[in-house]
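The protein record quoted in full:
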Amino acid sequence: MSTISTISVGNLVLNKATPPRKPRVEHYLIPSYQRGYRWTELHVSSLLNDIDSFMNSRKSTDESYCLQPIAIVKQLDKDGYTIWEIVDGQQRLITLFLILNYLGQYSYKLSFEKRSQSEEFLSNLNHSTYCHDTPDHHFISKAHEIISNWFEEKSHEDMGYKNRFAVVLVDAVKIIWYEMDIKGTQPKEIEAEKIDLFNRLNIGKIPLEDAELVRALLLCKSYEPTSHELLFRQSEFSNEWHEIEQFLQKPEVWGFLTSHKELANHIQLIFELLAENKNSKNYSTYKWFEDTINKANNPVQKARELWNKTKHIYSQFKYWMSDRTVYHYAGFLLSIQKIDIKTLYKESLQNKGVFKSNLYTKILDYLNSVNLDTINYVDNPEKVKNILLLFNVLSYQELIDTPNNRFPFNQYNDIRDTQKWSLEHIHAQRSQDPLKREDIIRKWIEDTLASISKVDSISKEVENQPVVIDMAPYKKELSKFLEQDVIDIEKFNNIREKIIEIFDSGSIHNLDNMALLSCSNNSSLNNAIFPVKRNRIIQLEKEGHFIPLCTKNVFLKLYSSADNQPYYWSTSDKEAYVEAIKQVIEKFKNKKLK
């Protein structure tokens, strides 16, 4: 697992974990896939001026100044000692080496995988060895000259300046230490992974630990108080971070807010919302935070402001989850993708009453675009799904307010993004393709006989005339098939179609014959008749599958006023079902928001 921390420049050179080699300093390797040193006067002078500005403005020796991150991978040298391969941050590390060199400070060892002449040149660098015969030598020489001239100017009337700068650099200047985890095991895999990480870092696509980099940046930039207050504030910051992350890690919260499964730190979602102008996928959230803070007139104040905004977004998320109306209305709009999380957050900054009213209006506008009497499976499948989802959501909204009486958007959205939701025909649609495999045929017969074993007859209307159909002959025919060694497939399919027709009540593709079910559960029902589906739905829920409330209710026929035929989906059942949908939606339309 990758880790992120902050360490002083002094600890870049030497720390408790530094191996006992001679000289005992940390070793850093610049790999061959990296270009050479290319920092110009602008880069070098900016680094020196930033440290100088910090040194002159700090109020306490406990304050620290944080530089941009270096990304490293732990390796072992030929003696088995740790050597750090630089994936990103080579320019900064070499410049710090040059500054330490000029100040006469003990420094770390830099090695180059391919450019050995650069390593030797660095080791012996001084005014007399400046060289311009290679790009590396030229830029390193120029950087050292810039450093030398800068310090000469600063110390012209202040002979102690270099010493004070050296103390601040070694002890108070910190760098974000990003130790990256490599998952490959074979040399080629490892090398390819490191190059991929290098490429992504250098176009701004910092990997999943982006949030941890922001955390380190905010900790570095937010504080300039006394020692006691610094420790207190950092502890407070860590506690607040932990509280936010714990909240966002809850499945019911995360599944409501987003379908991002890959984020290790869920607080990253908040940081992405904050990064208002980050309109490029190649511009990392961390880079946006870094640029925003560094370009501010008061970086400390800006860092604190960003953290306060982070906490405010968190408080808004908590409000969405705690207010039953907002939870169900916003959850529905997010699930059918009629609003995104960033727009939802911006709108939630309004007065709470106005916010709720806007959510209500968005749903109302959607309902006004739908005709419940004409939408159907063939022409408007998405609208049918969305209306059935809303029926479920509003049905939960009307239940007593308990933690379990809330629509589980996390489960719904998880199925939407993985298995997908489908429209289940409550009564089977007639199949264009007869069943041909004997094992499937036997399963169909067994399921059907088990489900209609207690059904003696079916009462229905045929051409507006009441008819009572005796089921005994059909059950007898099905039982005979099971006794046969080889089933007559053509004869079976004829009987099967007759049985499906008996349980048919017309309007196969209309709203009155539709229910929400996951694709995987739908496929397990195939074209089974109503009683088989009813039993299977009950069994699926017992097994822990998520069955939407209204889907379960419709197969239990809870919307029918009187049910003398629990195993038959009749015309009156369909009418009662659609009426229940219309009543719930009409109640919503006439709702007065509190």
